[in-house]
Design a protein that fits this description.
This protein has 14 helices and 7 strands. 49% of the residues lie in helices and 9% in strands. It has a 5-stranded parallel sheet with strand order 4-5-6-1-7, with helices on both faces. The protein starts with 9 loop residues before the first helix and ends with a helix. Helix 11 runs antiparallel to helix 13. It is an alpha/beta fold. It binds zinc ion. Zinc ion binds next to helix 3.
């Protein structure tokens, strides 16, 4: 998970990367947002950036920095196989007091990968056929964590703990964890991730630094730009029909934008595709803002794990071509054919 994969929250992300770059990382932090605001995504991308061996810094982008996505550490964290990355989450009791999050780890990691960390606790419990009401973080979970942290890290770098839905921690678990939160271990970071409306036990709350995500709408709403939205939707419709004359006329309209505007339009299109993909993965609505409700509700479902990478690389190549002064109409026709093909692979 890279920061670029998160929709919105640019100000917060830029502040976080600045703090990491300055080396003043707080050992216990709480990330809170509404459901599906991406708080778990942010924790994931944060840890990937923290450990990245080739952090990237950008001069003029909306992000000031991001992880490279390519180094061994990035790969392990993005695939959730880093040996020093640990998760605790509410788990159903299952009739035995010894059950812990460890027993559901495979299901949890699959859930994170499948939903791009946008799923809710309800969604997760659906995959377990567990009972959300009794799903808790218990003393066994906290004790396991304390034990893990008493051992040496495998890779000699950061040890990372994510406590998802930390408000579901019962008092016994919280007490077990207090010492760990009070006396930070070297090179150890604990991120508590949960929702606005949930209360943490005060003893825990007072020991963590809080990061609040911007609420609501940002997650699935593509940034407002009615002119671009209309043009994008007009073009996407043509890609289904592929009637050459109409497509060519639509592409002419796009190619008439000046180069800078065209680049912005393509970036807008790419952002829209990503937002559609994330919204569909999380099972929420994505609003294209075209004014055509039927198209707005149907189109996002066309973007899936089967074609998002093809679509992203097609847009990236078109943006690259426009930056290099390629003939706009040819670049846009090429993009049209590639997107049309990709949409059929959903
Ligand atoms: Zn990296």
């Amino acid at each position: 998970m890279q920061f670029k994969d998160i929709v919105g929250q640019r100000d917060i992300i830029n502040r976080l990367t600045a703090v990491i770059d300055s080396g003043r990382v707080s050992h216990a932090q709480r990330i809170i947002g509404d459901e599906r605001d991406g708080s778990l995504q942010l924790a994931w991308a944060y840890l990937q950036y923290l450990c990245c061996e080739h952090k990237q810094h950008f001069e003029n982008g909306e992000l000031r920095a991001d992880s490279c996505g390519e180094c061994p550490s990035c790969k392990k964290i993005s695939q959730l196989v880093h040996p020093d990355l640990h998760f605790i989450f509410p788990n159903p009791p299952n009739g035995s007091s010894n059950v812990s999050a460890e027993d559901y780890m495979k299901e949890f990691l699959d859930f994170m990968l499948n939903t791009h960390a946008l799923g809710t606790l309800n969604d997760f419990n659906d995959t377990l056929s567990g009972d959300v009401k009794t799903s808790m973080i218990r003393e066994t979970d906290a004790a396991h964590l304390v034990k893990v942290l008493s051992m040496k890290p495998y890779e000699g770098g950061w040890r990372m703990v994510v406590i998802w839905n930390a408000d579901r921690m019962n008092a016994a678990a919280a007490n077990e964890l207090l010492k760990t939160l009070e006396e930070p271990l070297p090179m150890t970071i604990i991120l508590l991730v949960d929702n606005y409306d949930k209360k943490l036990l005060p003893t825990i709350e007072s020991r963590v630094q809080t990061i609040k995500l911007k609420a609501g709408s940002e997650k699935s709403k593509v940034e407002d730009n009615p002119e671009f939205a209309g043009m994008l939707v007009g073009w996407l419709r043509m890609l289904f029909k592929l009637k050459m004359k109409e497509l060519s006329a639509q592409v002419d309209k796009m190619a008439a934008l000046n180069r800078e505007q065209l680049k912005l339009f393509l970036q807008y299109g790419l952002g829209t595709m990503r937002a559609c993909f994330l919204a569909t993965a999380a099972g929420v609505e994505c609003h294209l803002g075209s004014g055509d409700e039927k198209f707005d509700s149907q189109f996002p479902k066309m973007i899936t794990t089967n074609n998002i990478e093809l679509i992203e690389s097609a847009f990236d190549d078109a943006i690259f071509a426009i930056e290099r002064n390629a003939y706009a109409k040819i670049a846009l026709m090429e993009l049209s054919f590639r997107i049309s093909k990709a949409l059929k692979k959903r």
